[in-house]
Design brief:
- The complex is a heterodimer.
- By secondary structure, chain A is mostly helical.
- Chain A has helices spanning 6-21, 27-54, 88-111, 118-137, 141-159, 166-197, 202-210, 217-234, 243-246, 252-261, 266-273, 275-278, 282-303, 309-329, 333-360, 373-376, 378-392, 398-412, 421-449, 465-480, 488-494, 500-505, 524-554, 558-565, 567-574, 579-626, 633-653; strands at 65-75, 78-86.
- Chain A has a two-stranded antiparallel ribbon with strand order 1-2.
- The chains are: A mainly alpha, B mainly alpha.
- At the A-B interface, strand 1, helix 5, helix 6, helix 8 and helix 26 of A face helix 11, helix 13, helix 15, helix 16 and helix 17 of B.
Chain lengths: 657, 527
């Protein structure tokens, strides 16, 4: 198993080759190198998974395999090696990431075909895969931080990929800076972890925290929240979510890969990876869950009225990530990872399908200038529909199972610090589920089913196979991956086991969640509870679907009237609650003003002014004294006279003896 | 005491550039090609000598390859050289950067070239001497020796207000040097009580000096070094000097000259007066942090590219001061490696800005825009170097910043926490201005016709970029050699501190930093 680092090395090789020699490579070769290196990366991860399942290699106490490639930083007691951790969590992440990455790489060949920065694009994309694989396989916090910032860099480069335009560049800088705010907290968290535990290795931390520790819960809360701060930045949670909608300025496959399926889930991965640490602070867990739930419903509400096809999906991503934090915060880490896993497929599928639409309509993003595309692009429509149904929680698709697991874990969870929070968050989750189904089907109607509103001279058609095949594969995933984590209700009826949860449970120690425990007899009460939760989920999904159907099919056009009646709420949502304006006013404008003040008044004025004043003072003194040096004897005679008189007076007065 | 060196390799290293300069002095003024390639060759030879030293270094806890000759017996000053894991990297940084700046200068200096290269080589000798001298008089001699050629380089080959800038640079430094001179004489006089008076660093660091005297001597030395670093609030000479200096001057100034101050702080302020250093460590850490934040904020509104880099330089040096005065091995190792990192990345940034200035004859950020289109190679070099300066992990800047902050956090988590805020600021000011220079449509025809980097310029930058990656990905060879020397410094600090300040029980507590932090944090949270 000690070659999962190849999953990082291959894409890095691909990036280097394309980065250094891309200018001279034919497009076909460059894209082949890029895709093939990611395929190798997937094969390396998959091989590791197979070996792990077959039980090859000695495993540690909680089923992990750790090896070090070389010593990276090693200074007087502080050690951070280039080391890797192979366990169910990292294996699942690595396989998901590399598999989805490979599909999106292939799709990109078609999507970016006519772009002048073709090889530059693949260089960045390969670099991203390498960094993401590093993030999910590293065995210590600092190495993980390398991947963490590395994917942030690639995100910055790819958002601003079309650098001739202003908006992508601004969005890129915004993404990087907002992420750095999160990373600031993350770094402090790492420092504090090292100060207290004397190590940054996950395995050692788990060992220390696995036993009773005499560290105050307050301190654990501080550590957990600081590290969560990093997750909030990277996974675009409230209040640092503002960069993600703007990140949609990047090429669509990038939005699919980085800003939906993989990178943004890194925060969830972090919390799950450090589950043994979060468990020590009930308060921090509560914060994680509440922020997750709030973000889920908050951003779903913004998706309701947005007209930009990609931004709706972006808000949807933020909302789904909120779900994951909701369940992670309640201690249901495997459930969070399950949703992360299914979301990777559904979101990648939706973005790639939207990319097909955007491509067909000549880079049109506004859904008000779409409509009726089902007739022109039936295959894209089918894919989009599968994605929308899956994410809305329509029964028997992936999103149904994973979201249901989250809602059920919330419903049953009773954290010690605040027992009723589980039920409250469950209600929030259900409301969000209604909104999710509504905005997804609103999009389906606006793009595919309402009367066409696009420029008639365009002849939209389905994309070529190089784009379509990855979409189909993702569709298949969006249908099937849910069956890896069937809920108790289904396992007991169908007699099919839930394979994912026991696998993940080897490393993720669920705290509160009672669902999906293997081998335990299932009480009828539990079954009924689960049945109720499932029923509510199904109803809410159908309700959302029906609302969209009502507004955009049965009473098509009524939305214009509603916009006029509910003008204020509508505008608030459309303007994203004015959060961007608020941040801009608070931080950017004031920051600039303050910087100007420091530069002009303080630095040039006071600090340099003082130095110049001293110089001026000495100069002036010199000028004064110089005027005494006239060179005229009569002046000097006078000085001597005056001096002599003063001396005599002083002598007589006894001042000088 | 006397090291049995068969070849005085350090002296040869120091004086190679000077001998080269002397030879050039007697060459014909018009043979420009000769001046260029001869000075390049000399500087490369110096680099090769310094690299050649590496295998001969053993046990860097003490000074290696020492050379002691009687110099001025009347006052007890000797010619004493030696190298350890701290000076080693600064010597290598110096010899590494000089060939690069000389190579760069081929295309940007077009008058009085003979004098220009001679002055550069003299500067190199003085810098190497400063880092290798172990006798205070010799150190002072080289320290001041840097000033004269640098003054001329800025004053003659600079731009705009070059005379003002050169004068400011000299006056600031000299004021600091005077205080330092007083300190040197002070410690010399005091050493009389322990045998014949001496200026020898190795002897002086073993004399016990009472805290009060240490305080005064420490302040005198530290003021001199702090101006050179420069630390807030004595930094204002730097933006002017950098902005008006010729590019090579800026590279040497930022790359190596500022390190004289940081090196002095670590070697002499902390090395000779450890107890006073402990006493002032919180204030100096705070000054470092103020530098990081203050300069970082000012960076954001600079309109001149060179001024932007200059202020970012102040912020980076703030990290180094923070590291040095955190007084533990992690932070000080970070500080040493950060000195190298800063020399590489800021040096490279000045080179890049210089290359742009050579083409466009302006440094106003507002004049640019969309440069990525006509100059893709330049764009990529700038990107990598900027990311190194921002402290992106896997590049060199991260190793230094991370270790400094990690170490500082063990001592004072408030100051380290505020210092960490610098990582946000550096991203803001660099990315914001990077966007304004390189991105967007390339409208103005002057910008559109800019030529990309030529082979000579790429050759000058490539070694730096290589080092940026090497240190970032594999810092082991660097840290391994620094560690013993730093441990020596820290050991002396701890010994002095323990004797002067703490009772045995307190000592035990202080060592367990984690407990201390734990205690404080908990108390704060309960409140």
């Amino acid at each position: 198993m000690s070659y999962i680092h190849l999953a990082i090395v291959w894409p890095l090789v691909g990036a280097s080759v394309n980065g250094l020699f891309g200018k001279w490579l034919p497009k076909k070769l460059a894209s082949f190198i890029a895709c093939f290196s990611v395929l190798l990366s997937f094969l390396a991860s998959f091989l590791a998974l197979v070996m792990y399942l077959m039980g090859i290699g000695a495993l540690g106490p909680s089923g992990q395999y750790i090896y070090t490639l070389y010593s990276w930083i090693n200074v007087s007691g502080f050690t951070s090696d280039f080391g890797f951790l192979v366990d169910p969590l990292s294996l699942l992440m690595a396989n998901t990431v590399s598999f989805v990455s490979f599909l999106i790489h292939v799709y990109s060949i078609g999507y970016m075909e006519k772009d002048e920065g073709f090889t530059r694009y693949f260089t960045y994309l390969n670099l991203f895969v390498a960094m993401m694989m590093l993030l999910v396989t590293s065995e210590n916090l600092v190495m993980m931080f390398v991947g963490w910032e590395g994917v942030g860099l690639c995100s910055y480069l790819l958002i601003g990929f079309w650098y001739r335009n202003k908006a992508p560049q601004r969005a890129g800088v915004k993404a990087f800076v907002v992420n750095r705010v999160g990373d600031f907290a993350f770094l402090l968290g790492i420092f504090l972890v090292y100060a207290i535990f004397d190590t940054v290795r996950f395995s050692e931390l788990a060992k220390i925290l696995g036993t009773q520790v005499s560290i105050s819960p307050y301190l654990m809360t501080v550590i957990a929240l600081l590290l969560f701060g990093g997750a909030v930045g990277k996974s675009a949670q409230f209040p640092l979510y503002v960069w993600l909608p703007d990140a949609m300025e990047g090429p669509t496959p990038v939005s699919a890969l980085i800003h939906a399926a993989t990178m943004v889930t890194a925060g969830v991965y972090l919390v799950a990876r450090l589950n043994f640490l979060f468990t020590w602070s009930q308060f921090a867990m509560l914060i994680v869950a509440v922020i997750g739930a709030f973000t889920a419903i908050f951003s779903a509400s913004m998706a309701l009225v947005n007209n930009d096809i990609k931004r709706v999906l972006a808000y949807s991503t933020i909302s789904q990530l909120g779900y994951m934090f909701l369940s992670a915060g309640l201690g249901a880490y495997p459930v969070a990872i399950f949703h992360l896993f299914s979301n990777a497929f559904m979101k990648a599928l939706l973005f790639l399908s939207s990319g097909a639409v955007i491509h067909a309509l000549n880079d049109e993003l506004d859904m008000r200038r779409m409509g009726g595309l089902a007739k022109y692009m039936p295959k894209t429509y089918a894919n989009y529909l599968i994605g929308a149904m899956a994410i809305s929680g329509i029964p028997l698709l992936a999103g149904f199972f994973s979201k249901d697991a989250i809602l059920y874990s919330a419903y049953t969870s009773t954290p010690l610090s605040f027992p009723s929070v589980g039920k409250i968050l469950w209600i929030v989750g259900v409301l969000t589920a209604i909104l999710t189904a509504y905005y997804m089907f609103r999009q389906i109607y606006l793009v595919f089913l309402t009367p066409p509103r696009f420029n008639p001279s365009l002849h939209p058609h389905d994309p070529p196979n190089v784009m379509l095949v990855p979409m189909w594969i993702l569709s298949l995933g969006s249908v099937l991956v849910g069956y890896l984590g069937l809920p108790v209700l289904f396992t007991s009826i169908l007699g099919v086991p839930n394979v994912l949860m026991p696998f993940l449970n080897r490393v993720l120690h669920s705290v509160t969640v009672t669902a999906h425990k293997v081998g335990e007899p299932i009480s009828n009460k539990e079954l009924v509870g689960e049945a109720i939760v499932t029923l509510v989920s199904v109803i809410s999904a159908l309700l959302g679907l029906f609302l969209a159907h009502y507004f955009y099919k049965l009473r098509y056009g009524i939305t214009e009237k509603l916009k006029r009646i509910f003008k204020e709420p509508y505008l608030t949502l459309l303007n994203k609650y004015y959060v961007d304006e608020f941040y801009n006013g608070l931080f950017v404008v004031n920051g600039k003003r303050f910087a100007d003040f420091l530069d002009a008044e303080v630095d040039r004025g006071v600090v340099d002014g003082f130095a110049n004043f001293i110089a001026f003072f000495i100069g002036a003194l010199g000028q004064l004294l110089r005027s005494l040096q006239t060179g005229l004897i009569r002046n000097y005679a006078w000085y001597i006279c005056v001096g002599a008189i003063i001396l005599i007076v002083l002598l007589f007065r006894g001042v000088i003896t | 005491m006397l090291y049995q060196a068969t070849i005085p390799i350090l002296s040869i290293l120091i004086f190679t550039p000077l001998i080269g300069a002397l030879i050039m002095l007697f060459s014909a003024t018009h043979s420009i090609k000769f001046h260029r390639f001869f000075s390049l060759t000399i500087s490369i030879i110096a680099f090769l000598i310094s690299v050649g030293i590496l295998p001969f270094l053993k046990d860097l806890g003490t000074f290696n390859l020492e050379e002691i000759y009687t110099w001025l017996p009347q006052i007890g000053a000797s010619y004493h050289l030696g190298i350890d894991g701290i000076s080693l990297w600064l010597v290598l940084l110096t010899t590494f950067l000089f060939p690069i700046t000389i190579l760069y200068s081929f295309g940007s200096v077009h008058f009085r070239e003979k004098e220009y290269y001679i002055l550069l080589l003299i500067t190199e000798t003085a810098l190497l001497g400063t880092f290798l001298a172990l006798d205070l008089v010799l150190f002072f001699f080289f320290w001041e020796g840097v000033l004269i050629p640098m003054y001329l380089l800025i004053g003659i080959w600079g731009s705009g207000k070059r005379i003002y800038a050169a004068m400011k640079f000299v006056l600031f430094t000299v004021v600091g040097s005077l205080f330092m001179l007083v300190g040197i004489i002070g410690i010399f006089v005091y050493s009389n009580q322990f045998g014949p008076s001496t200026f020898d660093f190795v002897k002086l660091r073993n004399i016990p000096i009472p805290l009060e005297l240490q305080t005064w001597l420490f302040l005198a030395f530290t003021l001199g070094f702090a101006i050179k670093v420069p630390t807030f609030p004595v930094h204002t000479w730097l933006p002017d000097a950098h902005t008006e200096a010729p590019t090579a001057g800026s590279v040497i100034l930022a790359g190596v000259l500022l390190k004289m101050g940081a090196y002095g702080l670590l070697r002499f302020s902390v090395g000779l007066f450890p107890a006073a250093a402990i006493k002032f460590s919180p204030s100096l850490m705070a000054l470092g942090v103020v530098g990081i934040i203050y300069a970082g904020i000012i960076c954001a509104v600079q309109t001149d590219l060179k001024r932007l880099v200059a202020y970012s330089s102040i912020a980076h040096m703030g990290f180094i001061v923070l590291g040095i005065f955190s007084m533990n091995s992690i932070a000080q190792s970070g500080a040493v490696i950060q000195m190298v990192n800063h020399g590489l990345s800021t040096g490279a940034l000045f080179l890049l800005v210089g290359m742009l200035y050579d083409r466009r004859h302006t440094r106003e950020i507002a004049e640019f825009g969309g440069l990525a289109i006509p100059m893709p190679v330049f764009y990529n070099f700038f990107l990598v170097v900027m990311l190194s300066s921002i402290g992106l992990p896997a590049l060199n800047g991260f190793i230094g910043e991370f270790l400094i902050l990690l170490g500082a956090f063990q001592v004072n988590y408030y100051l380290a926490g505020v210092g960490t805020f610098g990582v946000i600021l550096s991203a803001v000011y660099f990315l914001y201005n990077f966007r304004r220079v390189f991105h967007g449509e390339c409208y103005s025809s002057e910008n559109r016709l800019l030529k990309d980097l030529n082979l000579r310029e790429i050759l000058a930058l490539a070694p730096i970029v290589l080092m940026i990656f090497l240190i970032g990905l594999y810092p082991r060879p660097f840290l391994k050699r620094t560690e013993p020397s730093i441990n020596e410094v820290v050991m002396r600090v701890n010994r002095a501190g323990a004797i002067l300040y703490l009772s045995p029980t307190e000592r035990a507590q202080k060592e367990d930093v984690s407990k201390l932090i734990n205690l404080n944090l908990t108390e704060n949270l309960v409140k």
